[in-house]
Amino acid sequence: MPSFLRSLALGATLFSSLSLAVRPVEIRGQDFVDTVTGKRLMIIGVDYQPGGQAGYKPQERSDALTDADVCLRDAALLQSLGANTIRVYNVDPTLNHDECASIFNAAGIYMIIDVNSPFGGESINRAEPEGSYHVGYLGRIFGVVENFKNYPNTLAFFAANEVMNDVPSSKDNPPFIRAVQRDLKNYIAKHADRTIPVGYSAADVRPILEDTWAYYQCALDGDQDDKSRSDFFGLNSYSWCGGDATFETAGYDVITEMFKNSSIPVFFSEYGCNEVQPRVFNEVSALYGEEMTALSGGLIYEYSQEESDYGLVTINDNGTVSLMTDFANLQEQYNKVDISLIQSTDPSSTSIKAPKCDSKLISDSGFSKDFDIPEPPEGAEDLINNGVDDGYVRGKLVPVTATKVTQKIYGTNGNEITGVELKKVQNDDSNVPSGQVLNSGEGGSNEDGGQPAEPTKKGAASTLTVSGGALFAVFAMVAMFL
Ligand SMILES: *[C@@H]1O[C@H](CO)[C@@H](O)[C@H](O)[C@H]1NC(C)=O
Ligand SMILES: *[C@@H]1O[C@H](CO)[C@@H](O)[C@H](O)[C@H]1NC(C)=O
């Protein structure tokens, strides 16, 4: 082959590796699994809702994933922190999220998207589940699927969050949530080109917690393909408070025992008790340690400081960000975890079959034993078969060109941290804690965290950019000759 053709072929190969896309993930048994490598994915996540619930402003055509400058700033910080997943609570499916989704994708960060919103008619109302399960509601949540189904970093959808938050609310609601899961999964099967898992995010309310999980993991008539089952179970867990807590005192032993035999992945969809501040997050080493491998990691509540006082960073009114001590503490904990070891473990080959749904699976807590799942409301079949209308935006990845964060970032001591930028991950990998410590705040950039030497992503990524540029020059020259 003439050498210039060889260069072209080589160039094409390298160029295609520049079009980054994290590898899609699917569920196998108890695990989230990378569909390409077959390795397990542990969720190392942060709940992301800048501005809190009030940050969701569809009337101003804005939600957490509509401002590319903000997403670049936050993706760069979350990447440096070591996160591989965010959870986003409220999105408007009539808005375009391409830039933000592409930025998080380039950072190697997956997204778990809640399909609901706090607005009327946009969630199952726990006080009136039957009246709120209607075709208008389904149109909205199918719109969210349309909006996010084409992003490779869409990891999963939450069909509902904490609808059952006490015994009374666990009486009538459960069959409706199963109905919503069924409808979402039927919609995804018909309109997406890959499976996207659907599940429920539960409040840690005893005694209904175990019943909630038992109710959602079971299979109607034992049919393992039953669409109304949850594909995974998220637990909002705040039982580990302060640095003195232990695996036992925090009740992590009970949780681990409860979910050890789960037929579906279980992870913390929120965690990080704030009763003792600053938080030291030593539950991180428990969650990713040997004893809790049955769980698939978790998401820290939450990225930004809001009224509820759980922030890792403060977003200042002028758009700058100040890292809080919690950010530094969490980064230190993430850096201690041997994530690559956990993720490289082959997923459990013996997957546990979902038990057949039966009232015997549910205790006498008062939780529903009703497995008679409501039929889809009028008009739903048509939506599922033919798709939602064009008022909903169909998302797609777009090139990410800017990587430098333009807003100023301040360390915990108030000094500016310079040189914060998004490092595009290579080889379609997802992000992992890098050993970096982003908190020097001394005009210098990122200090080395004292981890064993490992090439930083920064160096590697810039090499890639340079060789891409050089190859482009080769292309241009070859093109001139032809
Ligand atoms: C888990 O499964 C094993 C083996 O089937 C069984 O012996 C054990 O009791 C189960 N544990 C729980 C908590 O259900
Ligand atoms: C932005 O606001 C923060 C908090 O009020 C302040 O400390 C910082 O100096 C401001 N930065 C700029 C660039 O205006």
Automatic annotation (TrEMBL):
EC number: 2.4.1.-
Coiled coil stretches, renumbered: none
Record GO cellular component, one term: side of membrane
One Pfam family this sequence matches: Glyco_hydro_72
Membrane topology, as annotated: Lipid-anchor; GPI-anchor
SUPFAM superfamilies registered for this protein in UniProt: (Trans)glycosidases (SSF51445)
UniProt keyword terms in alphabetical order: Glycoprotein, GPI-anchor, Hydrolase, Lipoprotein, Membrane, Signal, Transferase, Transmembrane, Transmembrane helix
Annotated spans, Disordered: 428-461
Function per UniProt: Splits internally a 1,3-beta-glucan molecule and transfers the newly generated reducing end (the donor) to the non-reducing end of another 1,3-beta-glucan molecule (the acceptor) forming a 1,3-beta linkage, resulting in the elongation of 1,3-beta-glucan chains in the cell wall.
Name of the protein in its database record: 1,3-beta-glucanosyltransferase
Species of origin: Sporormia fimetaria CBS 119925
Lineage: Eukaryota, Fungi, Dikarya, Ascomycota, Pezizomycotina
